[in-house]
Amino acid sequence: MSAQPHSDTASYVADDPETALKYAIQHIEGDRVQIVEGVIQHIVPSWDHENVADKIRRQISPVVDKLECLTGSGDLDLPGTANWFVPDLAVVPGDLAKGAGALLPGQTLLVVEVTSDSNGDTDRIVKRRRYAEYGAPLYLLVDRQERTCTLYSQPGDLGYTEVHGPHPFGTPIHLPDPFDLELDTSEF
Q1: Which of 4, 15, 35, 62 is deepest in the core (most CB within 10 A)?
Q2: Across the beta sheet with 39-42, what order do the strands follow?
């Protein structure tokens, strides 16, 4: 179940705690927040963090345009859990993004998380497990603390069944179909 839409004319009634929590974080003005295993986290990425996400966005942009997709850091809902993720970068089909609030991880083509000192274990463990559980086909983990990149693919209920890496920064990472490109990681 995802959060109910807000209307200026209708009152809000919480059907369950998950709905109430997800509704509440969507209405915190001026802040980007996510919920990880029931814990609300404010998202305040550093410029260095944003730089890595931007380098990836620029490299995949020509393919994303051909696929008529969109890159961004929009909300991903994980129904049935107290999770509402805001990835550092996701690639989604353009037609799904139009008029959408949150999407599901399985509606993405690629999800990218860039670790920070404060969230490294969340990205390495919790998000990796949950993205697989909810069908994100490709999960790229850019681990700035370990200075490695790992590409996870073939999601299943017990996790990703294919793991490419960890590879040290500087090693090209092949993003498979529909991207079919080598990602240069030398400047991460």
Answers
A1: 35
A2: 39-42, 33-36, 83-85, 76-78
